[in-house]
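Reading a protein record of the kind used here takes only a little practice. These numbers are not coordinates but entries in a learned vocabulary of local backbone shapes. Here is one such record, which you should read through line by line.
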Amino acid sequence: MKNKETKKLTSFSDHLDQQYGKRGTKERETFEEGFEAFKLGIMIQELRKQNGLTQSQLAEKCGTTKNYISRIENNASDIRLSTLMRIISDGFGGHLRMNVF
């Protein structure tokens, strides 16, 4: 028998549908794009910390500014693909691989 509290639970997917509309709607797509940018900033920040780099050191390695790295990490700036590739290759010595689905 289900508890009354369980009936009040909403899945995360349902919550997003209620807050931003179903996938494919403009509001939901805007949310999804913003969330992807947020995740990218967090991934760069985590990679930077794992490599023991400050924002200034990473910026110097990839030819940009500390302020720009900070804005990317804090989701306050869009990032160009060429800059992202430079951060990954020059800053971290990695390779960027993308999937489209």
About this structure: The chain has a mean pLDDT of 90.
